Amino acid sequence: MEEHFSATNNSFYMNEAFTQAFKAVAADEVPVGAIVVSSNGTIIGRGYNQVESKKNQLAHAECIAIQNGTKNIDDWRLDGCILYVTLEPCRMCMGLIELSRISKLIYGANSPLFGFQLDNEQSSWVYKNDVVIRGGVGAEKSQLILKQFFQKKRNKKGEYQEAGLRGNQGCADAKAK
Ligand SMILES: [Zn+2]
């Protein structure tokens, strides 16, 4: 599995996650994208933030990618899989990552407001706590598209859309600065 964690592969897979994030941009959603990669390097799941379009607070990119991967391999146990996501996951998604037995998490920009607080080891003691975590992969690009998204919103609306600022993937603005 380790060969799939090289910087080149991380960059390749993170770009796939960005492709998902751009789908969110196109759908006027906060741009967060995620993919699930199996232990043999195959992308088995893809997802992008759809909280607004689905009117569903569960529709975070990671949740959709994980569910998509589960459906594709017909197994909820994603042992050996790697989740790539353009923004640090929220607590809900981190819980799902752990429950899904995902082996490695690679994320882009930090999410100081809604991120899982990955340095807080105690926060996940109740679950399996051996997910290998690495942040900062593609962080600048992730921050840039978030920033552009909210700048565009501001230009269009004149103000922040209050409704769009609730929840992790509706509230990435503070992290994008
Ligand atoms: Zn989340």
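Helices lie at 7-26, 61-73, 91-99, 139-157.
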